[in-house]
Write a structure and sequence with these properties.
It is found in: Secreted. By secondary structure, the chain is mainly β. Helices cover about 5% and strands about 35% of the residues. Strand 21 and strand 22 form a beta hairpin.
Length: about 900
């Protein structure tokens, strides 16, 4: 994400005195007062969530504290420490001593990336900062530097406790406002990648209710979280005072481009979560006895899944318009949630640009008003005493028919969503599964202890494969590092893999270089496997060129619901030291440097696989994360690069699959493609088109047809902005559920001025062909003429008809909910245009022919195919594919491909005929 337009909080708190972490000073004893009576209920709740003792604790039984840790190989500093235990830097953790300086020393040691070193991002100076059990009293903010994970002991979570004399923006600050800097911060908010905090309790009960630093006033706040992709919060609690005019806020997130959050608990306070960002996914958040659970500052779109609000005055307040130029809440999707004793569940304003609101499976108890226009009427009534279940209700722009007409409505949606059972848990909610941390009962096998190196230079392929084959069923831990491989890493079914600070598997070498013969870098199971597959905290990368690399092929199908899953794991292609795809290797330019063709496909979920994928970011770098950039820059345009990956995420699974909080950016042909897929949940997804397109267009530099149903942009006529990467394609797919999608096209050949204001950086974003059961909610787009362009002569949806604030907003797109399986069009892919149903000239029976094999057709067959009409009254019938044939199942219809007769064009045949690569099954 580079764009910074309309992405600023209106009033930046930049008049304070602090411009960095306090790292010096002793730890004086501070008188410890008892918790107020109002906090006890919250602390008891926390104990029930897993922390059994809130007093000083020194021991830890969690395996991460005592295992061998990793390194940062491309830093060229052998003294640099990746794993930092705060107690080894002087933190006491007794709840009495001031541990601020010690914790900040643990974080900053080694001249890490921040304003003091004039650094805005890095891939070489990461750190995992570990908090053993204890209570850590702090008096000024703990500053989390770039590329840092804070991890507490999940068996006995540590407490970060604000002192009664605390001064600063929050207990933990992730992006420091520069005093007097007119809103400038240490980092560029929409490029705030690679951050994580988990297993920590934030205690605000003793902090002053009003905080002043210089000319800046603050309210007591637990976490200032201003981040982008590749970030997460998990298993955190925010304990705040009850009532009495408290101003406490659990999380303050006023900006950014995230991101994923799960398993948080907020008790007491004025506001649990003050939220503002371009987009975000939140799952399993519980708010109890807050005045307001969630207060929206602004967004383009957010998904709130499995939210509980108990005894709060308001669950979701969307009445603010505090983004730049008055941007308010663009859209919210509230899914599988529960509100109890909440008088005014959701408040909004209709006198300005109204938010788009989607409520799906929301259960309320004793909620007088579910959706209320602030100062006006109630749009969706509840019951002051009793239960109301809202199955599917929306407010905003609706498209419910194939004619593409847009209407602004609110009410219960029709048709009502018909959910696939395979995607639901026993209670009827969409299935979800939190990341495992393997607290107890597992054998941990440390790869480094067994001689495997993460030095980024030594080929580890055979060693890794031997390790994985020998330890099925154990948890294989890859300490921080870069594990270089020159051939496929094969992960057997039954495996559990966990990294440390996004341990890298980096593919390189000749086996990954042939674009025409793609080779898998990491293979999760074999075709037909069923069972357990768990991967977390890993990063899949390449050292270029690697035009043939498929970074991850996912083959395992679940044996029990959600047994095949991946969390907090990402793809990065280029833009990092050691990748040979940096600004020195692949500077921004016109044309293509073949040495910068870096991947063929990032992630492939194959036909017989299923998977639960949570917080997965597939990023082809648009800029170099290690290049020098002045800290006061507001964008990273000065470090832009041109790196090419053919395709991002290809899903051919028959289900079930869940993509929870995923994003995909800058691949050449598409960011997401669902091809003959079924039973897929996606919420939230986010995409960006490559910044260099249309120079070159999406037809370069990769060959079309290498993978099934590649787009060929055949319907694009002399309009280069049409020949750009699809944000999402839904081809021959059924039962797909999307809850929020932010699809952006910011540039034309790196130039925003030429297209952004006119909203024509790109012609089309979403392609639909021969698909049905598509339930799409809260799509918001930027820079495209047509957000939806279904094929088969179906009317497109226009940006002009759906603009709402800074982006378009489409609350419900249900045109293909109940129809569509027989509707397709001219922009089908080479290798996938189906032979017209009335053609009977092919005499071969349904016969299996292997890819790349050859056979000879008879003269009569050849002549018949070439005589397909190209004009006249029956041309349209012959040349518009009728959908997937009921017989022979021509997944890749080579008849039209090999004859060049697709869409009625003249062609020729030469014998013998070669079956195109990757075209398989029947002919």
């Amino acid at each position: 994400m580079v764009d910074n337009t309309h992405n600023q909080y209106g009033v930046a708190p930049d008049d304070g005195l602090l411009n960095g972490p306090v790292i010096t000073g002793a730890q004086p004893a501070i008188k410890q007062s008892s918790f107020g009576a109002g906090a006890l209920t919250g602390l008891e709740e926390i104990r029930r969530r897993g922390s059994s003792n809130l007093q000083a604790r020194d021991s830890s039984g969690y395996w991460l504290a005592s295992t061998t840790h990793g390194e940062m190989p491309f830093l060229d500093d052998s003294s640099y420490v990746f794993f930092r235990n705060v107690k080894e830097y002087g933190a006491v953790g007794d709840g009495v001593a001031d541990d601020t300086a010690a914790i900040n020393r643990a974080i900053t040691n080694g001249n890490r990336c921040g304003l003091p070193t004039n650094c805005t991002s890095t891939t070489t100076m990461g750190a995992l900062v570990y908090f053993p059990p204890g209570t850590y009293r702090v008096t000024t903010p703990i500053i989390q530097y770039y590329y840092t994970q804070f991890v507490g002991d999940p068996l006995d979570r540590p407490v970060i406790k604000g002192d009664s004399n605390f001064s600063g923006i929050a207990l933990v600050d992730t992006d420091v406002y520069i005093p007097g800097g007119n809103g400038l911060e240490w980092y560029i908010n929409q490029n705030q990648f690679y951050r994580q905090i988990r297993n920590i309790i934030f205690d605000l009960t003793e902090m002053p209710n009003e905080i002043t630093s210089g000319d800046q006033s603050y309210v007591p706040t637990g976490l200032h979280w201003q981040v982008a992709q590749g970030t997460s919060l998990m298993n955190l609690d925010f304990v705040m005072p009850l009532g009495g005019g408290t101003k406490a806020v659990g999380i303050f997130m006023e900006n950014g481009s995230g991101g994923f959050i799960s398993d948080l608990y907020f008790y007491g306070g004025n506001i649990g979560f003050k939220a503002g960002s371009q987009q975000f996914t939140h799952r399993a958040l519980k708010f109890q006895s807050c005045v307001t659970a969630i207060s929206m500052i602004w967004d383009w779109g957010m998904t709130w899944q499995a939210i509980e609000a108990l005894a709060t005055y308001t669950a979701l307040d969307t009445t603010a318009y505090k983004g730049s130029s008055g941007q308010g809440t663009g859209s919210i999707a509230v899914v599988d949630s529960y509100f109890e004793h909440v008088p005014y569940a959701i408040t909004m304003q209709m006198n300005k640009v109204s938010p788009n609101i989607l409520l799906d499976n929301l259960r309320t108890v004793d909620c007088e008003s579910i959706v209320m226009n602030s100062g006006g009427n109630t749009l969706l009534a509840g019951k002051s005493s009793g239960e109301v279940v809202v199955d599917s209700w929306g407010l905003g722009n609706w498209v419910t028919s194939l004619n593409g007409s847009v209407s602004f409505n609110y009410g219960y949606l029709s048709p009502k969503v018909n959910k696939s059972e395979s995607l639901l848990d026993p209670k009827g909610s969409y299935y979800a599964r939190s990341r495992p941390q393997y607290e107890s009962g597992f054998t941990i096998v440390n790869a480094r202890d067994l001689g495997i190196k993460g030095d980024g230079y030594t080929d580890q392929t055979d060693k890794i494969n031997n390790l994985l084959a020998s330890n099925v069923g154990s948890v294989v831990f890859f300490p921080a590092g870069v594990y270089l491989v020159t051939d496929t890493v094969k992960i057997p079914v039954g495996s559990r893999i966990v990294g440390e600070g996004w341990s890298q598997i980096m593919g390189t070498g000749s086996k990954f270089s042939n674009e025409a013969s793609p080779r898998v870098m990491v293979q999760a199971g074999k075709e037909g496997d069923s069972g357990i597959m768990e991967i977390s905290d890993m990063l899949f990368t390449v050292r270029g060129p690697a035009a043939g690399a498929v970074l991850l092929e996912w083959n395992v199908h679940e044996s029990t619901q959600g047994s095949a899953a991946m969390w907090d794991s990402h793809f990065r292609v280029g833009g990092a030291k050691g990748s040979d795809l940096s600004i020195d290797d692949c500077p921004r330019l016109d044309g293509v440097n073949d040495k910068c063709m870096a991947a063929n496909l990032l992630m492939h979920v194959t036909r017989h696989a299923s998977g639960y994928f949570e917080n997965v970011w597939a990023w082809v770098a648009d800029h170099d994360l290690d290049a020098d950039l002045n800290a006061d820059e507001t964008t990273s345009t000065a470090t832009q690069i041109s790196v090419y990956a053919g395709r991002a995420i290809l899903v051919e699974s028959q289900g079930p699959c869940w993509f929870v909080g995923s994003s995909s950016e800058h691949s050449v042909l598409y960011q997401y493609q669902l091809s003959e897929a079924n039973d897929i949940y996606m919420g939230h997804i986010q995409t960006e088109t490559p910044y260099y397109q249309p120079s070159p267009t999406a037809l370069q530099p990769f060959t079309i047809g290498i993978f099934n149903q590649d787009p060929d942009f055949g319907s694009c006529i002399a309009n280069s902005s049409c020949i750009e990467a699809w944000a999402a394609r839904f081809i021959n797919s059924t039962n797909v559920y999307v809850y929020s999608a932010g699809l952006y096209s910011w540039f034309t050949n790196y130039d925003q001025d030429a297209c952004l204001d006119s909203e024509d950086c790109q012609e089309n974003l979403v392609d639909i062909s021969y698909s049905q059961g598509l339930w799409f909610y809260n799509f918001f787009t930027k820079g495209a003429v047509h957000p939806f362009t279904p094929e088969g002569g179906i009317s497109h949806v226009s940006q002009v008809d759906t603009q709402s604030g800074f982006t378009t907003q489409i609350n419900a797109y249900l045109a293909f909910a109940l129809t569509g399986a027989e509707i397709g069009g001219l922009d089908n892919v080479k290798g996938d245009s189906h032979t017209p149903a009335n053609v009977s000239i092919v005499s071969l029976p349904c016969t299996s022919v292997a890819a790349s094999s050859t056979f000879t057709m008879s003269a009569a067959c050849t002549a018949g195919i070439l005589q397909l009409p190209t004009s006249g009254p029956n041309a349209s019938m012959h040349n518009d594919p009728p959908g997937t044939p009921k017989t022979c199942h021509e997944v890749c219809d080579f008849w039209r491909l090999i004859t060049g007769t697709c869409c009625g064009s003249d062609g020729s045949i030469s014998n013998p005929v070669e079956i195109p690569p990757r075209c398989d099954h029947s002919v």
